[in-house]
Amino acid sequence: MTYEKFQYSKEWKILKELSKGQGLQELKQAQVDASLNRKINWFLYGGASGVITLIKEIYGDEALKKLYQFLDYFISNPDTLGHYYHSDKIKADTKTIADSTQGLNFGEYLEDLKRELVEGDKQKGRG
After folding, report:
1. Which domain holds residue 109?
2. Core vs surface per residue 47-59: b (16+ CB within 10 A) or e
């Protein structure tokens, strides 16, 4: 049975191709994409974007620019006093994602994500 009206995630599409005898490279990429997607989705929905929105709505665009400048400073020299300190988990995730996504055009990734977010909101009946 085929459900043509459903939009399958990248992971499901890869599993479908694997069931047709495709190689494991696609599965590995889907797992990495899923890991990167989880990180981005956590950022968008797990609180960070909520804090950014709160600052913009209460203090305005200029304060938001100052927050972005502070964040740039905070991550500019990691693992030093007054800056971000990497956890062991983030160190491992950074290496895994960096090794596996070589050649990824992050701008295109974000454009694709933007389209997926719009489609997801439409499917939920938003807007």
Report:
1. 87-126
2. eeeeebeebeeee
Q: Tens of pLDDT along 17-60?
A: 666 655 545 544 555 556 788 888 889 988 899 999 999 999 99
Cα–Cα distance, 23 to 64 (Å, whole number) = 46
The domain total for the chain is: 2
The answer on 76 and 98 residing in a single domain is no
| pTM of the shown model | 0.62
For residue 90, the tally of other CB atoms under 10 A from its CB is: 13
Q: Residue 65's Cα: distance from chain center in Å?
A: 22
- Helices (DSSP H) in 46-125: which residue ranges? 48-59, 61-76, 88-100, 106-123
CA distance 58 to 77: 29
Structural tokens at position 28: 């590995």
Tell whether 38 and 79 lie within a shared domain: yes
Q: How far apart are CA 26 and CA 55, in angstroms?
A: 40
Together in a domain, 43 and 81: yes
